[in-house]
Amino acid sequence: YVLTQPPSVSVAPGKTAEIACGGDNIEEKSVHWYQQKPGQAPVPVMFYDSDRPSGIPERFSGSNSGSTATLTISRVEAGDEADYFCQVWDRIGDQVVFGGGTKVTVL
Amino acid sequence: EVQLVESGGALVQPGRALTLSCSVFEFTFADYALSWVRQAPGKGLEWVGFIRRKTDGGTPEYAASVRGRFTLSRDDSRGIAYLQMKSLRLEDTAVYYCTRFRSGPGSYIFDYWGQGALVTVAS
Fold this sequence. Notes:
The complex is a heterodimer. Chain A has no helices and 9 strands. In chain A, strands 1, 3, 4, 7, 8 and 9 form a 6-stranded mixed beta sheet that branches. The N and C termini of chain A lie far apart (33 Å). Chain B is mainly beta. In chain B, strands 2, 4, 5, 6, 9, 10 and 11 form a 7-stranded mixed beta sheet that branches. In chain B, strands 1-3-8-7 form a 4-stranded antiparallel beta sheet, with no helix packed on it. The N and C termini of chain B lie far apart (39 Å).
């Protein structure tokens, strides 16, 4: 199973960033998202398509439909600049699959 | 505060072996699966494998890229997980993260991550 993410997304402060994660019938899977800042370990920002872990701002939201899952960051701040990775569990092979990651740049 | 702490990262020659350890704090080790994720320099995240909790059989699963060379194990009495790596290759160079691997409805999530251990394979 393959997850496809755009390599980069640029957004101005205060605007909305949408990070796509494409996969075959991905809507049938639960998609999770992780944020990674330079030199740091990844941090979960979204579980099960649209559930925010404790401590994650409401500006982060998620959706999953058809062949694309989306992580949306509203009112983007400089501190949101990071790499974002989507992840699913492939039940067929008992395997974890990560997307290639999207670098979000705040202009 | 939940913590996972990796140790054992090192510079190792190709073909040699190395074992990483993961110690956990502030949660009941035996209640969770543990997983390893690696990240080569400047690259994305790559899942290495996971080991189930004993109540789910305690069995491991591996990514195809490491199957047959890497072995996951756990010592519930000590609260430590191990990643034994043998026949190391240049492409195994990466930061290796230990993660708590939590099961949920039809999926697994990495809800807590260690800070990572650097493994460099070079001659």
